[in-house]
Amino acid sequence: MNITLWNTLLKTPLLKNSETNKVQQWIQAGQETSLSIAALAQLQGIFIQLSQYRMETLANLTQLSPLSKDYFGNNDLAFTWKKIHSIYQCSKEELADALYINEVVVNMWDRSINDREKYTFTETFERFIGRTLDVSSTVLLEKQIEEPVVQKEEKEVEENVVELVEIEKVEVVETVSQEKDFTFLEQLSVLQTSSVQSVVHAEEFTELQHYMHVERSIQEHFIRALEEAESKNGAHLIMLCGSVGDGKSHLISYVHEIRPELLEQVYVHNDSTESHNPSEDEIETLEKVLAPFEGRGAGRDKVVLAINLGVLHNFYAKHRHTTQFPKTIHAIEASRVFEVDKDFDNSTEDVTLLNFAGLQPYEISDKGATSRFFEAIIKKIVAPTEENPFYRAWQKDRERDVWTPAHLNYSLLQEETMPSAIVQVLVEAMMKEKLFLSTRALYNVIYDMIVPLDNTTFHPDHMLPSLLFSRPERSELMHALHTIDPVARRAEVLDSLLREFILTNDVTTMIQQHLTGNAHYLTIWENTDGDVESYSKLLIRHYYILNHAALNERFYQFLQTLFSYYTETNDAYEKLFHMMMQAIERWIGSPKERYIYIDAIGESNYQLAIPFQANARPGREFGQARGQTEINRLKPEVELGLDVNGKTIYVTIDYALFELLCNVANGYRPTRQDYTEALQFVEFYSDIIRYTDKSDEMLIVHIPTKQMVRMKKPFFGGGLKKYEVESIE
C-alpha cells in the first residue's frame, strides 16, 4: 500500500468525512486485503469524485467544455469514461484502469475478490489516484479542506467507531430491509446496482429478491437437471453458461431458497465469485473443481458450475488436446455451446449444459416484439398490493402528504398499458443498438426514468416520458433510448398532434383524449404558456410511448423479416432479397437496368459498368426456428447470401443497414457518411464486383451525356476481333 499516495488524497477537498475516515483506517491497517463490500462501496464514491475531477482537469488542459455533472450521477461510469477518452483524448492506459476499477465496484455485489485480485485492484486504484492528482497537483493542494486535518485527528477515535458501526449497518441492512419504514425514494434506491440494499445482491436470497423473482424457462430446465442428478448414483456436472449479469447466480440463489434439498449433495461453484487461493488463476481453480467429477480427486462429484463463456472457452482451449478432462471436453464439443444459435439445454449422459448465451430477454413473433420478463418486473414494482414494498412506501408517503415528481412518475407507470408500452420502447432501443440488457441494468433504467435529478419541481423535463429519452449519460441503454427520441424525428401524425396542441384552448382535455386522465399529471398541463417547447417534447414522447406500433412501420417491417428469417413462415425474407437487388443497383448507380457501376462516379467523365446477375442464397441460420410461433434465441440481424458466378457472398443486415437499404431502394442517394457507416455493405458490394465475370461484357458510359458503348466478346471467339463494340440507347 502506497501510504504517501493515500495521505496526499487525504489532504484534498475531494473526500467526504466518511471516506476520509475509511482511508485513515486503511493507512493504519497497512494492508489492502481488507477490501470488504462496505470498503468497495466507499471506494466507489471516491472513484466517482476523482473521475469528475479528472474530467474537469482534462477539460481545462484541452480548453474544451466540461461534461455535465449528470454524467457522474450514475454509479456505473463505463460510458462516462469512454466519453472522456473520446473527447479529451486521455491515454488508453488510463481508460483501461478506469474501466477496470468501474467493473469491480459496479459488480461488487455479484462477486467476491480473492486476495490476488485485491492487490491488483489496489495497485490499479493507486495508479489512478496518482495520475489524477499529478495532473494539476499544485492547484489541487492549494485548496483547503473545510475541516482542518488537526481537527480530524482529534476526533479520529470517535469517528472511526461511528464509521465501524456504519459499516456493520451496511452489511446487515439487507436482512432487515423489510422491517425498516423506508420512504418511497429510499425503497426505490434498491433498484440501483450500487445500493447497499441492491435487489440484485448475489450473496443471499432476500425477501425483496423473493418478491421480485420472475420465472424464466431456463429455471424449469435447471430444476429438472438437479432432480435427475439427485436420482443418480454417479458423478454429474451441470453447467450454467452465459455472460455477466444474465442471471446465473440469481437462479442458483433462488433454487437454494425454494428447493435447498436439491443442492445438499452438490458442490456449487461460481467462476465469477470464487477462487481456492490467491496464487491460482480461474482456470486452475476450475481444474480443481472438476477433478472429482472426472474421477481424479477427492470431493463431491456432483457439481453445479456457473461459468462465463469466455472462461469456459479458455478451459476448453487448454484441455481440448489433453486427456485430463475427457467427460467435460466431450460435453462441450457435443453441445456446440460456442455457437450462439444452439438451444440452451444440451445434455450428455453425465453432463447437462444450460446455455444463457444468445437467449434474449425479449421475444419476437409475427405480431412484433415484446419482453414478458421485463414487463413482469415492471408490473412487480408497480403492483398495488401490500406484498409490494415499493407500493407500500409510495402509499405511506401519500398518507404523509409527501408528493414529488418521482411519486407522480410512479403513478404514470402504474397505468394499465404503460408497462407494456415502456417495454416496447426498451426492446426497440436494444434491437437497434444490439444491446443486451441484464436484469440489474433494467432496474437501473427503471430508477432513472422515475427519479429526476431535481425531484422538487414538477417540470415537463422531470416527467417519466422525458426522463426515458433525455438522459443519455446514465447508461448505455439510456444512450440508446436517446438515439430513438421521437422529438428528433418527423412524422405527419406527430406534426398534427403539435398543431392541435398549439391551437387548442383546452390543453387538459386534449391530454385526457390522447394520453391519460391521471389527475396529478393533468395539473402540470394547466399552464403551458411559459415553456411551450418543453411541453411539446413531453407531449411527443408520451404519445410515442403509447402509440409505438403505429409510429414504427419500418421497425415492425424489420421484425417481420427477422421472424421470417428464423422461422421460414412468411415471405418477408424473400421480399428482403428483392429489396436488396434494387438497393445494389442504386447503391452507386446504374446506367441501365441489370447493370451496376464498378466505382463511384468521380471527376472522370467516363465510368465502367458491368452486368449484374445473382441468385439468392439463404443465410446460414435461415429456418433454424422453423415451426416455432415465438423465438427468443436469436441475433437482431439477418444474413443474406448472393451467388455471384459460383461464389456465395454473405452480408449481415442489422436494423441500421436494413433502414438504409430500404431508403436506397426507394430512391435515396447515400452520402459519404452512409458509406462510412455501412462498411460491411461497401465490402459486400466490392465482393460482387470482384466475383462478377467482367471478361464477357462491359459498358463504357459518358457521364455528362449518358451515352453508352457496349464492349462484348464476339460470337465467334476464335476470330481476329477481341471485342465487339456497339453504341446503345
TrEMBL record:
The record, for InterPro entries, names: Dnd_assoc_3
Superkingdom of origin organism: Bacteria
* Name of the molecule in the record: DNA phosphorothioation-dependent restriction protein DptF
Task: Give the species.
Answer: Savagea faecisuis
